[in-house]
């Protein structure tokens, strides 16, 4: 297909039927995502806070240069973090009969937990709870419209998860509008309470990850897991970007490191399939959401989880 200017463009992908899994929302219009994620006010101002009954009290976070983010070399010099002993997979997952992984946007589950998923894929039931389709990541792009991004990112998510051993049948799509999770936080919590079991392990975005959708998902997961009585761990995605590595010890009291050296090549291959995010696509004018300096944070031999 050619545009009015004679430039070859790929055909529009066929529309598919909705595959939402019983999650009912009030009708709300999609909102354009700000190019700069919403950071916790305490992080911007350096205020210490107590959160959720003291679960992370005394927290103090320093804010780095957001335009470039914290350099991976600075993170590698964070001896406080990397000198901690690795947690065995059996200890990390405990006696969980099922792993329920909340992914705010398609690909978050592979970036934050791809190594863990590969390690457990053969012997543990896994459900990926895909909250949004990430359709608002390139606001204003003429070719990569929200509708086109929605389908492309779903397809990428399926491919990436297949690479780490998780089939498409394990994905539960909730179809919340990208950028609107905070408006549906209570509904998400109710849904999780009705879905989780006491013997589950819930993996959720860090409650202070620096993006409104991630933080809303983390808060809902925290309350739901506490209500049901299941184990819960959080994983950072954008926290690696904006947080000063020198302040990690103030934000993360007891991080747990999982050694994924044996499966790191598999994870890297899965991450490479997130083409709309890495920029390995045609007709994208904006900088990709995951340029090389950001991807470096997800190429490590360890994954970090927060209790």
UniProtKB/TrEMBL annotation:
Residues 1-31 are annotated as: Disordered. It holds the Pfam family PIG-L. Its EC number is 3.5.1.89. InterPro entries: GlcNAc_PI_deacetylase-related, LmbE-like_dom_sf. GO terms for molecular function: N-acetylglucosaminylphosphatidylinositol deacetylase activity. It is an enzyme of class 3 (hydrolase). Signal peptide: none annotated. Belongs to the PIGL family. This is N-acetylglucosaminylphosphatidylinositol deacetylase. It comes from Knufia peltigerae. The lineage of its organism: Eukaryota, Fungi, Dikarya, Ascomycota, Pezizomycotina.
